[in-house]
Automatic annotation (TrEMBL):
Record keywords, A-Z: Hydrolase
Protein name: Acyl-CoA thioester hydrolase
Keyword ATP-binding listed: no
Source domain of life: Bacteria
Entry similarity comment: Belongs to the 4-hydroxybenzoyl-CoA thioesterase family.
InterPro entries (UniProt xref): 4-hydroxybenzoyl-CoA_TE (IPR050563), HB-CoA_thioesterase_AS (IPR008272), HotDog_dom_sf (IPR029069), YbgC/YbaW (IPR006684)
Signal sequence extent: none
Phylogenetic lineage: Bacteria, Pseudomonadati, Bacteroidota, Flavobacteriia, Flavobacteriales
Sample GO molecular function, one term: fatty acyl-CoA hydrolase activity
Gene3D superfamilies recorded: Hotdog Thioesterase (3.10.129.10)
């Protein structure tokens, strides 16, 4: 992201559900990727870039890479915030960064996902699809 760009973010509050915890009483590590998905969905609703918008334009965006680093545990019943940040790129891809903060505003987890655009024939798009470029222009990117 260029330094003169204001980050495009979304913050979503989530409560840890019982079925997300392991026998130790903490959130099982695999659920953090689901929390990233919650962040992406909230981001899309807030900023007009939902999966349904993408699908309506004739594209899908599979994840090709995900990273996740854990710092502190989350426990059943706790609430936490997912801060999802769009990372601007000239490449035809969606890059999101995530930070999860517990009730004490301490960083619990951070990560990133990268998605690419496939057209209706499952061909990889090497250039930004028109609808995505229009969204970026509207967002000042």
């Amino acid at each position: 992201m260029q330094s003169n760009e204001k980050p495009i973010q979304c913050t979503e509050e989530v409560r840890v559900r019982f079925n997300e915890t392991d026998p130790l009483g903490i959130v099982w590590h695999g659920h953090y990727i689901v929390y990233f998905e919650d962040g992406r969905e909230a981001f899309g609703r807030q900023h007009g870039l939902t999966y349904l918008d993408i699908q309506k334009a004739g594209f899908v965006t599979p994840i090709i890479k995900s990273t996740c680093e854990h710092f502190l545990p989350l426990k059943y019943g706790e609430t936490f915030n997912i801060v999802t940040t769009f990372v601007n790129s000239t490449a035809a891809k969606l890059i999101y960064r995530y930070e999860l903060f517990n009730q004490d505003n301490k960083l619990v987890c951070s990560g990133e996902t990268i998605q690419v655009f496939l057209d209706s024939d499952n061909n990889l798009c090497l250039y930004n699809p028109e609808f995505f470029q229009a969204w970026k222009d509207k967002m000042g990117l």
